[in-house]
Design brief:
- About 15% of the residues lie in helices and about 35% in strands.
- It is an alpha+beta fold.
- The protein has four domains: about 375 residues, YVTN repeat-like/Quinoprotein amine dehydrogenase (Methylamine Dehydrogenase, Chain H, 7 Propeller), CATH 2.130.10; about 110 residues, no CATH class; about 110 residues, Immunoglobulins (Immunoglobulin-like); about 60 residues, no CATH class.
- A hairpin with a 4-residue loop joins strand 22 and strand 23.
- Helix 7 packs parallel to helix 10 and helix 10 runs antiparallel to helix 11.
- The relative contact order is 0.10.
- It binds 2-acetamido-2-deoxy-beta-D-glucopyranose (2 copies).
Length: about 750
């Protein structure tokens, strides 16, 4: 379902400065393939935005897939780029501050280039034709409307003249302070420092018809020197009145000496919050926050059991890193919305007792439960938070924090990096779809200007195996990249492209570079990149994931549906979903049907054989859809009448379908399969998969196989185009990958 997919792609965040996970999960953090900036360029799969603008800080990336455009905000510039090719006729708005403003900014003691520019920090769709855009305006935030036209073919992109608003409460003064925003139903919600000094942090609502709202000012119980990471609308249910906006941020721990000093938070407000009546006037009366944990709370895992609901609920991926230590470390944690809601439905944190400590509040909780949205499922008769009893509002003011913390799914990080010289700054996730299941591919930006492509495979109920498929250097590292808290924005999209922004610029790159893995089947198989497959000749894009083919057969004739596994011995399954049916049935060899290693033979076709055929291969934990095709069975009468009409000789009854592979094609297939070399490679691939599945207890066997494999690859060396000086190193890494028994 598209909706699910969008959740996965968009509910992403990057958080920092959390406790370092302590569980010694062995990271296979060495990528299978590392491509330097130059090597990446030479593959032709990455394109840097190459227009020379006097700009920096390409921080805001905003997709507009309806228009096939991407909007980018940098210092003094707003760009509209073509998603297919960001260098194709970019539309560029130069929006600097007036010279006088710049002078004033400099006179107030700010740096002319670093601070007194107009750093674009907000680009939100306003209506069908306009965007709302804000910049820091040389320490005097400003906003305006940008006309982008109705359709992209119009090539319109210009500032709406005479429409400049104050950006206060929408955009920070100081470009070093991150802000977040969401424009929903004409209301702008922003997490931002709203003053010149950068001391008054607030979650603000402005612009629309509803009451302007904010968090309680200078109340450290609500927000304590926060760093805003992301804002995201996540509906609870179909009931619109329950819609909540979630804020991800980190803030100072409320207690002195508390460890860690910074805590990661998830906070939320109801969109229809109107504030209190007695108190909290024009302030959120539904603001609650909880702590997000991304470390390992002890040697458990036994209590974790998989709840099927998790997969249906949206999940949130967070990137965490440790700050202030000599070595660096990061982790990726995944949270389920179900767990998050459970924490918000749990006890409130409360201070009492002789030691004045945080405890779970056990007293009477007023009605409606604090944090509930007005007019929603539980409060249909209270249309506004102004109708809430005073005790609810008072309770909210003093209890904005939940007592329980949110733990990641399975109570442990998904990915951990310890003792490495980089840290993750951002994440985006692509789902590589196979109709019977899908793989999540993580793209992790690092502070050394690279992007890692990582998949995590379940090994059994409790263990996972992480594979770094590739690491590519998207930006040449210069000192600026190392500045902390500077995320690279990463956005995956329907275009099968990753868009990456940084201090230095914008680049888009393909999600896969299959041929880089090598030119033999073994390399392709070992890479285990779900985007790639061995097609019998080369390692190529696994097109079957997305492409659905149509094949025709004639009633009474025989047809062959080709499906060749990467290795001939993996288990292949065929499923048929008949027309007008929503069920998939497994096909077995019986009667007219014969399953072969090369595909499915269907004899004396009947019209009821029409439908969608799917061939899946299971290799270790990978389930790939190799082929998905629609079979259309034409009645022999129709075909004959068409042939008669066109003057072609009519088909004799029971002739082979014209769409069955020709003798020539079969010959090709056989030649390929009978080459001794191919057989050898296939054998290795097969052994490899079996090894992973069957013999974890026998390390000697594993090592032996790895060695043989290495020898095979040595033989193959001259044929591998993309191998470099660090070849030996990489081959050693391969050994690690091929000996799962070690770990
Ligand atoms: C680029 O902009 C900076 C100020 O933002 C200015 O000092 C510099 O001269 C500009 N360089 C060029 C080549 O225009
Ligand atoms: C969109 O908003 C802009 C700015 O308020 C306005 O000028 C324009 O007419 C609006 N366009 C549509 C289609 O409503």
């Amino acid at each position: 379902m598209l909706w699910d997919k969008l959740w996965c792609l968009s509910t992403l965040l990057a958080l920092s400065a959390e406790a370092l996970p302590t569980l010694p999960i062995e990271p296979l953090s060495a990528p299978r393939v590392f491509l330097s900036f130059k090597e990446l360029r030479s593959t032709g799969t990455a394109h840097h935005f190459s227009f020379l603008l006097n700009s920096t800080d390409y921080r805001i990336l905003r997709m507009d897939e309806d228009h096939d455009r991407m909007y980018v905000g940098s210092k003094d510039y707003i760009l509209s780029l073509d998603l297919h090719d960001i260098n194709k006729e970019p539309l560029i708005i130069h929006w600097p501050v007036a010279p006088q403003r710049k002078t004033e900014c400099v006179l107030s003691g700010k740096d002319i280039n670093g601070e007194c520019g107009n750093f674009i920090r907000l680009i939100e769709p306003w209506n069908r034709t306009h965007l709302y855009v804000c910049g820091t305006g040389a320490y005097n935030p400003i906003c305006t409307y940008v006309d982008r036209g109705r359709r992209s073919q119009e090539y319109i992109f210009r500032l709406e003249p005479g429409k400049v608003d104050s950006g206060k409460g929408k955009c920070p003064y100081d470009p070093k302070l991150n802000s977040v925003s969401a424009l929903i139903n004409g209301e702008l919600y922003a997490g931002v420092y709203i003053d010149f000094m950068g001391t008054d942090a607030s979650i603000f609502r402005t612009l629309g018809k509803q009451t302007a709202m904010r968090t309680d000012q200078y109340n450290s119980k609500w927000l304590n020197d926060p760093i805003f990471i992301k804002a995201h609308l996540i509906p609870d249910s179909a009931e619109k009145n329950d819609d909540k906006l979630y804020f991800f941020f980190r803030e100072k721990a409320s207690e002195m000496g508390q460890s860690p000093m910074a805590q990661s938070r998830i906070g939320r407000i109801c969109l229809n919050d109107d504030g209190g009546h007695c108190c909290l006037v024009n302030k959120w009366s539904t603001f609650l926050k909880a702590r997000l944990i991304c470390s390992v709370p002890g040697v458990d895992g036994i209590e974790t059991h998989f709840d099927e609901l998790h997969t249906k609920n949206p999940v949130i991926y967070g990137v965490f890193s440790v700050s202030g230590s000599v070595f660096k470390g990061s982790a990726v944690c995944v949270y389920s919305m179900a767990d998050i809601r459970q924490v918000f439905n749990g006890p409130y944190a409360h201070k009492e007792g002789p030691n004045y400590q945080w405890m779970a509040y056990t007293g009477k909780i007023p009605y409606p439960r604090p944090g509930t949205c007005p007019g929603g499922t539980f409060t249909p008769n209270m249309k506004s938070t102004k109708d809430y009893p005073d005790e609810v509002i008072n309770f909210m003011r003093n209890h904005p924090t939940m007592y329980n913390t949110v733990y990641p799914i399975h109570k442990r990080p998904l990915v951990v990096r310890n003792n490495v010289d980089y840290e993750f700054t951002t994440i985006t996730v692509d789902q590589v779809a196979a109709a019977d299941g899908s793989y999540e591919v993580l793209f992790l930006g690092t502070d050394r200007g690279t992007v890692q492509k990582v998949i995590v495979l379940p090994r059994d109920d409790l263990q996972t195996e992480e594979l770094v498929l590739e690491e590519v250097e998207v930006f040449r590292v210069i000192w600026m990249m190392l500045r902390r808290h500077f995320p690279i924005g990463l956005y995956s999209s329907l275009q099968q492209q990753l868009y990456v922004g940084s201090v230095l610029g914008v680049t888009h790159l393909a999600l896969h570079r299959c041929d880089v893995y090598g030119e033999v089947c073994a390399d392709c198989c070992l890479a285990r990149d779900p985007y790639c497959a061995w097609d019998g000749k080369s390692c190529t894009r696994n097109i079957h994931n997305t492409l659905e083919m149509v094949q025709y057969g004639v009633e009474g004739s025989t047809t062959f549906l080709e499906c060749q596994a990467r290795s001939p011995h993996v288990s292949l399954k065929w499923h048929l979903q008949r027309e007008n049916s929503d069920r998939k049935k497994e096909i077995r060899s019986e009667g007219r049907t014969l399953k072969t290693e090369q595909g499915l033979l269907l004899r004396s076709l009947q019209s009821s054989d029409s439908g969608v055929y799917q061939c899946t291969a299971t290799e270790k934990n990978f389930k790939h859809t190799l082929v998905k095709l629609q079979l259309v069975v034409l009645s022999s009468r129709t075909v004959n009448s068409i042939l008669v009409e066109t003057g072609s000789p009519a088909l004799p009854h029971l002739q082979t379908s014209p769409w069955t592979p020709s003798a020539g094609q079969y010959k090709d297939l056989l030649t390929i399969l009978s080459q001794p070399e191919m057989g050898l490679i296939n054998q290795y691939c097969q052994d490899y998969w079996q090894l992973g599945e069957g013999s974890p207890g026998d390390p000697m066997l594993a090592v032996g196989k790895a060695k043989e494999l290495k020898e095979l690859k040595e033989q193959k060396k001259p044929r591998n185009r993309r191998h470099h000086d660090d070849e030996d190193e990489r081959e050693d890494d391969d050994d690690e990958h091929t000996t799962p028994a070690e770990t």
